[in-house]
Q: What sequence folds into this?
């Protein structure tokens, strides 16, 4: 009964999505206030019914209703309740429903916080989001019904993929989807601007906080995903350039470019067309990512669904949404460059350079991800494009960007003075170079990449300091109150940049300095790595809720002093019989000690892999600051005032000054 | 003193055959070469794992094969040749430089150069652009339109 | 014109994605197509002292079916091969891949053998030389000993009719 209610709620939601889209869009076109007024209640109703549907699905999972095919395939009676709940988005059908739910959630958020917008603008935004909702709900009902029944119902389920049974899986997909789908708001704003022909500065200001919040969620999702891979996949990697990861990285790159370009559009009225295009691009990348993961066109560890009919549906949907919006763009984009003049060396020119590099990097990731597909489609054979390609292409592409990250925030709008900045930059360069040299001295070996990466990170950090110093000088007075007077937008930008510098330092240090050993260990055997002594004290059996495991006892000592005991596991899951390696990690600010069990040998001996990973946690600490920066930027005072609704957009477009 | 005691108890606690653990590969130098090589190779059965990271049986067989060939004194490129002869370019995570991969390898830098060109021409135009009243009548009309629509 | 560029890029991309949808990312073409079948000499299962080499079948069109007793899909494929063998369309040679538990002989005695000969590749070396990634895989080898096709996975009715029959007809002419 409950699944049928869910199914019915989905049908109602589909109809409401149509109501949310068509009348308001017509109303906005004709200036009919009654039709426009339909948008908000319809959107909220749509959210309500999708939420009911999702609740029904989650309920079916929680009560182990194996007559529902989706539950039978992805859950198991012994699975802990929290994973049963998470399993509701672990399947293809469930994850698409989560997509629709989150889209409805964002739409509802727009209905609440868009009261200050002109009525036709908000009607168009909500209407466009309604069209997207309609497409997704139709897809769910036609091609991937999560409530399909099985008859006869199996006795038990076949379990959630063990890879997904990790606390990370509980948080990772919802965060990622919040980010993916969040870009739909900026997209809807861009489409609304194109439809209305009003490509003014106001829409940039309106969509900026939404974009920042979506970007925050996507950043949390990606950082969390990387953390999950590191903990769960069992060999200590944290980024694999896997198509699924690329699918989340591409919208992030586009979204990052969009955030920067929105700044230029809002503050200076520059690059309006470009910003609109980026807003379309960011959401398109979310959709393309969904397509790549869901359609099975690319083989991937995580691609759990491979079904061409679904693929064709999503592709058709992509064609309508992306093709439609790009056609609209071609017709409606402004014919003349917008904004005022600026010089070679100005905040605008540097932001444009940032965008150029980010989009080129996005292009590189897209090219590498899709190239095997191109080759295959042209009948030229199969090739693989993997981490060695991406690393060797992406690093040189992104390096100039990291360098610019130090310069950009110091540069003034319109025209910056190069001689004025030269002094600051010389200091930063000197400090960065010294840091680079120091790193190779301290680590005791000269590795060019490590020194260069750390120097680059130092360069960014120093310029952040210089940026604050200049601000303080400008405000004057006591340091501390002056710091508080600096707008949160500035704080946000600098925190995010600091976070990225931190991530950069972590990546270069761990990539350059990590060490590992792969050894055969009898009971009592010891191996040594990076000043740590690992002693294998045998295996004890361990019973998990839905798995059995061999649990290793490995004592770690340093300089004869016992430090801690690690318990890596080798699990066999009861339902699927799938083996899983569960690594044991001792976390630290400057290093992780990471141990994973390999295979059982004779006489209780095992092969054991031990890793020493210096500074790996800086990746996630940096990720935290990146996210914090986004949160600060989104909560800047300007937007809060805008939300309260009174204020008119304060900035007049430069192009319209005449 | 305490440390000595601890060391002593640890010695006693450890079984008699306690010893230094043996590396999985007998020759550490070859092992290192094998790992380096196989991180750039694809595990064929698991599809999206490297040959170095995979626990699949075929991956283990191939690693053993690589080790053996290296022991016989084959160079890295000879080992790669051996694998591509059997499994095609699909095993290589780093696609080889061929006519059909030129776009793959140069594409990103073409994007960057294209972007740089866009940047250059945009800025050139911007610098030439004086305040809007000199930007021609069409632009002026548009600007006025914009203002009107906004108000 | 400039403003149409993004749309054009997208249309091209969508075209590739559409074609890509109809391709199986897991099917990897063999580099051996059109090349001579790698030579080997292996003992024959159940016939001590006898060996098999591909050169024994020069002048014949034949199938090399890589299988193993531990392989579940091969068990599903077995009845199909039995039917083919009974129909006598083409000789099928088995390559018993990595049968460490030595079960092949007993298994074939129990279920019946569709093979004219079964080469015993315990170490798996020959399989690797043929670029085998998993069982079952089937190679079509022509009269000159050239590999003409490789089929990955179970041979089902559809695959047999569409992939094998036309090719075998052509090769036997």
A:
């Amino acid at each position: 009964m409950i699944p049928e209610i869910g199914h019915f709620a989905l049908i109602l939601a589909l109809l409401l999505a149509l109501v949310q889209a068509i009348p308001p869009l017509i109303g906005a076109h004709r200036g009919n206030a009654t039709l426009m007024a339909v948008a908000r209640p319809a959107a909220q109703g749509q959210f309500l019914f999708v939420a009911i549907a999702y609740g029904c699905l989650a309920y079916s999972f929680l009560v182990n209703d194996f007559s529902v095919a989706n539950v039978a395939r992805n859950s198991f009676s012994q699975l802990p309740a929290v994973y049963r709940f998470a399993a509701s988005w672990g399947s293809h059908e469930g994850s698409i429903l989560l997509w629709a739910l989150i889209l409805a959630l964002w739409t509802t958020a727009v209905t609440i916080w868009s009261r200050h917008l002109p009525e036709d603008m908000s009607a168009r935004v909500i209407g466009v989001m309604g069209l997207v909702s309609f497409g997704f709900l139709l897809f769910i009902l036609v091609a991937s019904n999560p409530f399909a029944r099985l008859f006869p119902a199996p006795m038990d389920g076949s379990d959630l993929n063990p890879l997904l049974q990790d606390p990370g899986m509980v948080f990772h997909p919802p965060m990622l989807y919040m980010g993916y789908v969040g870009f739909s708001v900026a997209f809807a704003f861009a489409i609304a601007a194109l439809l209305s022909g009003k490509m003014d500065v106001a829409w940039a200001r309106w969509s900026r906080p939404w974009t920042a919040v979506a970007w925050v969620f996507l950043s949390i999702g990606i950082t969390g995903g990387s953390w999950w891979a590191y903990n769960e996949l069992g060999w200590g990697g944290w980024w694999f350039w896997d198509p699924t990861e690329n699918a989340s990285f591409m919208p992030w790159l586009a979204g990052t470019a969009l955030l920067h370009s929105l700044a230029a559009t809002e503050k200076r009225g520059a690059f309006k067309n470009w910003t609109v295009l980026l807003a379309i691009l960011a959401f398109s990348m979310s959709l393309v990512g969904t397509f790549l993961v869901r359609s099975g066109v690319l083989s991937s560890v995580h691609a759990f669904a491979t079904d061409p009919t679904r693929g064709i549906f999503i592709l058709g949907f992509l064609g309508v949404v992306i093709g439609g919006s790009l056609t609209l763009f071609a017709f409606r984009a402004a014919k003349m460059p917008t904004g005022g003049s600026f010089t070679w060396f100005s905040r605008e020119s540097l932001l444009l350079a940032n965008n150029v590099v980010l989009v080129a990097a996005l292009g590189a990731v897209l090219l590498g991800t899709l190239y095997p597909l191109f080759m295959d489609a042209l009948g030229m054979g199969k090739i693989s494009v993997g981490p060695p390609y991406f690393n060797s292409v992406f690093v040189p592409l992104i390096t100039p960007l990291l360098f610019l990250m130090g310069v950009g925030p110091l540069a003034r709008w319109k025209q910056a003075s190069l001689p004025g900045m030269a002094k600051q930059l010389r200091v930063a360069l000197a400090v960065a170079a010294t840091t680079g040299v120091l790193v190779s001295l301290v680590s005791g070996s000269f590795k060019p990449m490590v020194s260069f990466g750390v120097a680059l990170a130092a360069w960014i950090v120093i310029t952040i300091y210089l940026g604050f110093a200049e601000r303080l000088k400008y405000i004057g007075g006591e340091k501390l109150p002056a710091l508080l007077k600096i707008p949160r937008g500035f704080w946000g930008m600098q925190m995010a940049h600091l976070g990225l510098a931190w991530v950069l330092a972590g990546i270069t240090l761990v990539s350059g300095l990590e060490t590992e050993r792969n050894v055969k260990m009898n009971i009592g055997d010891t191996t040594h790595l990076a000043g740590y002594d690992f002693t294998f004290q045998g295996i004890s059996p361990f019973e998990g809720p839905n798995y059995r495991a061999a649990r290793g006892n490995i004592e770690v000592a340093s300089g004869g002093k016992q430090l801690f005991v690690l318990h890596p596991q080798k699990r066999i899951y009861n339902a699927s019989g799938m083996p899983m390696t569960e690594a044991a990690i001792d976390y630290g600010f400057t290093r992780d000690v990471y141990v994973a069990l390999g295979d059982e040998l004779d006489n209780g001996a095992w092969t054991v892999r031990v890793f020493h990973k210096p500074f790996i946690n800086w990746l996630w600490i940096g990720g935290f600051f990146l996210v914090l920066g986004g949160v600060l930027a989104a909560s800047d005072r300007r937007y809060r005032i805008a939300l309260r609704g009174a204020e008119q957009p304060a900035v007049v477009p430069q192009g319209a000054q005449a | 003193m305490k440390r000595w005691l601890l060391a002593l108890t640890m010695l006693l606690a450890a079984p008699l055959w306690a010893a230094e653990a043996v590396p999985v590969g007998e020759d550490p130098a070859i092992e290192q070469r094998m790992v380096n090589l196989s991180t750039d190779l694809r595990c064929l059965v698991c599809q999206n794992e490297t040959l170095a990271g995979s626990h699949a049986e075929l991956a283990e067989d191939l690693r053993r094969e690589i080790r053996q060939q290296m022991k016989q004194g084959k160079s890295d490129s000879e080992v790669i040749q051996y694998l591509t002869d059997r499994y095609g370019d699909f095993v290589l995570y780093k696609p080889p430089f061929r006519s059909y991969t030129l776009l793959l390898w140069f594409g990103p830098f073409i994007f960057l150069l294209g972007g740089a060109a866009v940047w250059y021409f945009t800025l050139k135009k911007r610098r030439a652009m004086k305040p809007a009243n000199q930007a021609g009548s069409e632009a002026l009309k548009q600007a006025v339109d914009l203002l009107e629509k906004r108000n | 014109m400039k403003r149409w560029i993004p749309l054009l890029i997208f249309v091209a991309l969508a075209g590739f994605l559409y074609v890509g949808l109809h391709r199986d990312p897991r099917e990897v073409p063999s580099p051996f197509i059109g090349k001579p079948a790698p030579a080997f000499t292996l003992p024959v299962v159940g016939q001590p002292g006898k060996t098999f080499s591909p050169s024994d079948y020069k002048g014949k069109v034949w199938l090399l079916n890589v299988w193993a007793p531990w392989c579940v899909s091969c068990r599903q494929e077995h009845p199909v091969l039995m039917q083919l063998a009974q129909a006598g369309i083409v000789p099928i040679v088995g390559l018993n891949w990595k049968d460490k538990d030595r079960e092949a002989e007993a298994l074939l005695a129990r279920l019946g053998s569709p093979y004219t000969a079964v080469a015993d590749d315990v170490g798996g070396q020959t399989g690797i030389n043929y670029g085998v990634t998993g069982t079952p895989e089937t190679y079509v080898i022509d009269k000159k000993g050239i590999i003409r096709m490789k089929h990955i996975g179970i041979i089902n009715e559809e695959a047999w009719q569409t992939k094998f029959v036309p090719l075998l007809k052509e090769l036997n002419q």
